[in-house]
Write a structure and sequence with these properties.
Elements lengths: L10 H12 L2 E2 L8 H7 L1 E2 L1 H12 L4 E9 L4 E4 L2 E4 L2 E8 L14 E4 L8 E6 L1 H18 L3 H14 L4 H13 L3 H12 L6 H13 L3 H13 L5 H13 L3 H14 L5 H12 L3 H14 L3 H17 L4
């Protein structure tokens, strides 16, 4: 990091060049590691990369910010858990500028990311407190995968100590209690998170699944209606939830969620492709064909068109035996 080869660069450029030259294996599927472990293992997820970038910035005079970015959704199934990932990236900038942190010229900022910034969209900036709270949320989710519920609980506690309205941590807490069959505490966690009144989509979905699991069908229907009426304008949030439900085999529920995504952005091809595959799994071939035709009509790249044409041919050739 202090080599002669990097001395001609500004602090922010030096951090970027060092990471570019030394790190190859950062991706969604890796663990959340601290800076020294990330460097030693040459791997980690987006949170690990952000932690390492922060550590390097402390060796310089560079400033640092965090961003929540929209990237292609990535899902992992580990044991009984379905994980979806939020993407955090780091922005480094030179402090020896006449601009405040909030009004830095774009060419004075460098985004540290393993995704091309052309393929992602900045949703909002993330405060230092939220970043560290999210770090503990990540560690809690990883502990859940290992069935280490004590470690998961400790990390949830740390996350909420830093930011009491961390809905990801609260959601994991509900799942943790449900996994331990402490159903009263699970429900209290879900309802506590919902009481904050924002970004409720995943909490509502998990609470609905909780009510179905506990055979409280009337209450589950009310939450299902609330989900139907929920007005989150981001179609990709609905797509993420729909994909999760599809992978669980909840095809009818996934269709409703895909339809919400289509309602928010009828120009997208993904919701219609989702509706098509879910209907096909239910044996509703004509509905599947109609939705796949809509997906093809909305596909604006050769790659997407080729994929959907292949899937459509498969559906038609297997329709009689489905």
């Amino acid at each position: 990091f202090h080599s002669n080869a990097l001395r001609g660069y500004t602090d922010s450029q030096r951090i970027f060049m060092y990471l570019k030259n030394h790190l190859q294996n950062f991706n969604f599927h890796s663990e959340t590691l601290n800076a020294s472990d990330s460097l030693a293992l040459n791997s980690g997820n987006c949170m690990s990369l952000a932690i390492l970038t922060k550590a390097l910035s402390q060796l310089t005079h560079a400033g640092i910010q965090y961003e929540l970015a929209r990237t292609p959704p990535v899902f992992q199934r580990e044991g009984n858990f379905e994980l979806s990932s939020q993407h955090i990236r780091t922005v480094v900038f030179n402090k020896n500028t006449n601009f405040t942190k909030q009004f830095i010229k774009p060419n004075n900022k460098i985004k540290i990311d393993y995704f091309s910034t052309a393929g992602s969209r900045t949703l909002r900036t993330v405060s230092k407190e939220e970043f560290y709270s999210l770090y503990y949320s990540n560690r809690a989710a990883e502990a859940m995968i290992r069935n280490d519920y004590n470690d998961a609980y400790w990390h949830i506690k740390e996350a909420l100590k830093i930011k009491r309205d961390n809905l990801i941590a609260i959601n994991i807490l509900g799942v943790l209690y449900q996994q331990l069959n402490q159903l009263d505490y699970a429900e209290r966690a879900y309802r506590y998170g919902l009481a904050f009144g924002f970004d409720q989509l995943e909490l509502l979905n998990n609470y609905h699944n909780f009510l179905v699991h506990t055979n409280r069908q009337d209450e589950a229907l009310l939450i299902a209606q609330e989900l139907t009426n929920y007005n989150d304008p981001d179609p990709f949030k609905w797509l993420d939830l729909a994909d999760q439900e599809f992978k669980k085999g909840n095809y009818r529920k996934s269709i409703k969620l895909y339809e919400k995504a289509a309602e928010k952005a009828d120009y997208l091809h993904q919701p219609y492709a989702g509706i098509a595959k879910a209907n096909f799994m239910l044996g509703r071939n004509e509905l599947a064909f109609k939705s796949m035709e809509m997906a093809l009509a909305n596909a604006h790249t050769q790659q997407a068109t080729s994929i959907y044409q292949a899937k459509f041919e498969y559906m038609k050739s297997h329709a009689k035996t489905n």
